[in-house]
């Protein structure tokens, strides 16, 4: 993972510096990436263009890494930028899974899979919320089987393969993601419980 981040930085950092010199801010990059990702999800997936939807969303998920590079070029990010980035991530994730629910009720014609996609949608928001709420309370909720990058990889690999004609690829991806996400919710709640107990024991 550190090697991957280093490889990405070799590309994103010069691009971020180039954008910064032209007056582009990290917040602009965050908002643009989110708007296009949401629009692509809600246009392509419900219309059964799973492959092209995957391509466009993947491009703008990668584009989202540039906001950090632009922030570094500007001398560091702001607290508002960090909150905006987190909020936009939740919006983009929600749009992706909502679009897949829509696809399930439409071209996918699978109500059970729609329920699974809804589980993925809700659990992805809950996983992030547990961490945010724990940190606000001075506790920790790190770890778990699946975090946002892995959620996106599983989902987009499934939709992309399905769009290329691989049968049940999106079904396998969503079922796997739903199970792993629910496990991660439990793991994060357990981590918060351990953190709270440790703090109570330390103060008691």
Task: Give the topology, please.
Blueprint lengths: L1 H20 L4 H19 L5 H14 L2 H8 L5 H27 L5 H26 L11 H16 L5 H35 L1
Helix pairs in contact: 1-4, 2-3, 2-4, 2-5, 3-7, 5-6, 6-8, 7-8
Report on the architecture of this protein.
- The chain is mostly helical and 204 residues long.
- It is built from 8 helices and no strands.
- Helix 5 packs antiparallel against helix 6 and helix 7 runs antiparallel to helix 8.
Question: Any key phrases for this structure?
Answer:
single chain; 204 residues; mainly alpha; 8 helices; flat
Structural class: mainly alpha
Count the strands? Answer: 0
Topology as H/E string?
HHHHHHHH
Shape: flat
Largest sheet, described in full? none
Oligomer: single chain
Taking all residues together, what is the mean pLDDT?
89
Percentage of β-strand residues: under 5%
- How many helices? The count is 8
User: N- to C-terminal separation?
Assistant: 39 Å
Fraction of helical residues: over 70%
Radius of gyration: 18 Å
Low-confidence stretches: none
């Amino acid at each position: 993972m550190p090697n991957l981040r280093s490889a990405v930085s070799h590309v994103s950092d010069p691009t971020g510096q180039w954008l910064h010199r032209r007056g582009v801010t990290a917040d602009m990059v965050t908002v643009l990436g989110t708007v296009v990702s949401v629009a692509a999800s809600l246009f392509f997936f419900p219309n059964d263009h799973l492959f092209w939807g995957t391509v466009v969303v993947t491009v703008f998920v990668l584009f989202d890494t540039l906001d950090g590079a632009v922030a570094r070029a500007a001398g560091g990010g702001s607290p508002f930028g960090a909150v905006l980035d987190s909020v936009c991530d939740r919006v983009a994730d929600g749009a992706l899974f909502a679009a897949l629910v829509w696809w399930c009720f439409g071209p996918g014609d699978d109500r059970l899979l729609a329920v699974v996609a809804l589980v993925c949608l809700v659990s992805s928001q809950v996983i992030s919320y547990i961490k945010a709420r724990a940190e606000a309370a001075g506790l920790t909720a790190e770890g778990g089987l699946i975090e946002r990058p892995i959620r996106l990889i599983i989902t987009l690999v499934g939709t992309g393969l399905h769009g290329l004609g691989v049968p049940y690829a999106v079904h396998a991806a969503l079922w796997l993601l739903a199970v792993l996400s629910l496990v991660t919710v439990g793991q994060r709640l357990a981590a918060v419980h351990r953190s709270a107990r440790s703090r109570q024991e330390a103060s008691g």
